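Troubleshooting entry. The earlier prediction with nicotinamide-adenine-dinucleotide gave an output that would not parse, so I re-checked the input for stray whitespace and re-submitted. Clean input:
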Amino acid sequence: MTRPFVFPGLTTRVVFGHGTLAQVPDEVARLGHSRALVLSTPHQEAEAQALADRLGDRAAGVFARAAMHTPVEVTEDAVAAFRAAGAECVVSLGGGSTTGLGKAIAVRTGADQVVIPTTYAGSEMTDILGETTGGEKTTRRDPAIRPEVVVYDVDLTLSLPVGLTVTSALNAIAHAMEALYAPDRNPVIEAMIRDALPAFRDAVPVLVAQPQDGEARARALYAAWCCSTALGYVSMALHHKLAHVLGGSFGLPHAETHAVLLPHTTAYNEPAVGDLLKPIAETFGGTAGAGLWQFARSVGAPLRLADLGLKETDLDRAAETATRNPYANPRPVSRDGIRQLLQQAYDGQCPD
Ligand code: NAD
């Protein structure tokens, strides 16, 4: 029987292809804006400057200080730069860190956002903003946070290092995994996920061998769009909670943390969700948790929290922090259960 559902509609305009960066000036004009502040990390400043040159009179400058987990001090400087330049919208060129800065400016100023994602992290389709102040990370959802336009240019992902290609893809698959059992899931998101999983399974091994393969890059970026949409339109649970705790309170790197946790959070919830994780098991083989672990190992992903800088003595505190406030999850979240999950992820064992 078809399940009842609500499909909220997709509000973001999406442009996808090779060389679509050339369309950014038209997209800014289409929004009715004549001055755009271009954002990037320091690492991608040259690309941001080239985009500002391409925008010509529509460029209000470049702010190239985006940083992981959106520190509020950086946002305050960026908002001042946005206002001083008389900018009307932001153009965010980069991964989740740059998209996060654009969202933080937008929620404070009402600016429209054109986002050009260059990783698979998937912030671009969401109404979620995580920010850090004084070492504390807080996350909120607000319709004003969701970008107006996303321009996916496959060519910009050719330079994504192999390590980040792998971990960022697993980060994206984590959104799909939790969306499959989300109480507010819907058939549109499910169809996108069923498209995305084999696309990542087939593209990532090709990219590990040939990072410049344009067709594999296109498949991976398409899959990233599907997974970002899943993240942006249905609820997340245990996996995202744990990644948030390890990133926000223990300073672990974002994509790598998602990559290491994914097989373990999947295996934890798998017995509680009937056949909802079957698309993952069918795509990667075995049970969903073990299949993802084998896939992660085959593409050289990090497998152990121990290798990401977490100390074994931190595991108790991580389990405590992650279970302090109750939240919806298919399988009850107990402190001991999460402590055991974290130990497995710390050791890097294949989940049962
Ligand atoms: P990132 O944006 O921090 O990028 C990592 C590094 O890779 C940066 O130096 C960046 O400049 C560089 N880089 C990015 N794309 C590149 C490319 N194509 N070629 C060469 N270098 C490139 O990393 P990320 O994993 O994309 O994003 C992580 C951040 O995004 C975290 O802060 C996370 O919380 C946030 N995030 C938020 C959401 C949301 O919905 N709010 C979703 C996913 C991630």
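This one parsed fine. The CA atoms of residues 56 and 350 lie 52 Å apart.
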